[in-house]
Amino acid sequence: MIYPLAFGFANSECTESWTWFLKKLRKVIQYLDRVMLVSDRHNGIFNAMEAIFPDAAHGICAYHLAQNLKRFCKQRDNVIWLYYRATYAYRIEEFDRVMSELKETYCKVYDELLVAGVKKFSRVHSLKKRYFLMTTNIAESMNSCLLAI
Fold first, then answer.
1. Is the pTM of this model over 0.85?
2. Which parts of the sequence belong to the MULE transposase domain (predicted)?
3. What whole-number distance in Å separates Cα of residue 113 and Cα of residue 71?
4. Which of 90, 101, 103, 107 has its CA 20 to 30 A from that of 4?
5. Is residue 34 within a helix (H) or strand (E), and if so which, with residue range?
6. How many other C-beta atoms are found inside a 10 Å radius of the C-beta of residue 5?
7. CA distances (Å), origin 121, targets 40, 47, 109
8. How far apart are CA 8 and CA 64, in angstroms?
9. What DSSP line would sit under 44-59, residue for residue?
10. What is the maximum span of the chain, computed from C-alpha positions, in angstroms?
11. What DSSP line would sit under 87-124, residue for residue?
């Protein structure tokens, strides 16, 4: 289960707003060595995370990365399916096999994944245990609810 720990309201998604939020969050997190932040790679989040949680692992939301990858290919279904297979792989051998297939068939997508950082999107290479929590869906769900208000 995912439980929202905290949420805040800000004028915009910028480094200043995210810094404020992460400072507040840091005050209530007891085990800082276990922290892993999963984001959509927004610069404001990344900059604030580096300042407030410099030792935390940083992961990329699997869904958001998939959406970004779609711009590199015309046959989207197959490439996204391969991407998710690599992302959710439990064994390095499986990850390597799928990444090789991506490299052969969708070189631009493969290159973009390397730029993103294997440790940030791959479950098997993650610096912290991600289990099945690979997306920021809880944040998107809350955004949808709040927009209706």
1. no
2. 2-68
3. 13
4. 90
5. none
6. 9
7. 11, 18, 13
8. 21
9. HHHHHHHHH-TTSEEE
10. 47
11. HT-SSHHHHHHHHHHHHHH-HHHHHHHHHH-HHHH-TT
**Least confident range of 11-20, 92-101, 120-129:** 120-129
Place of tokens 């959406």: 67
- pLDDT, tens digit, 9 for 90 and up, residues 23-72: 998 998 887 877 888 888 888 888 999 999 988 888 888 888 988 888 77
Residue 22's Cβ-side half-sphere holds a number of Cα atoms within 13 Å equal to 25
Residue with tokens 């699997």: 62
**Token pair listed for 106:** 């969708």
Q: Would you give the DSSP letter of residue 38?
A: E
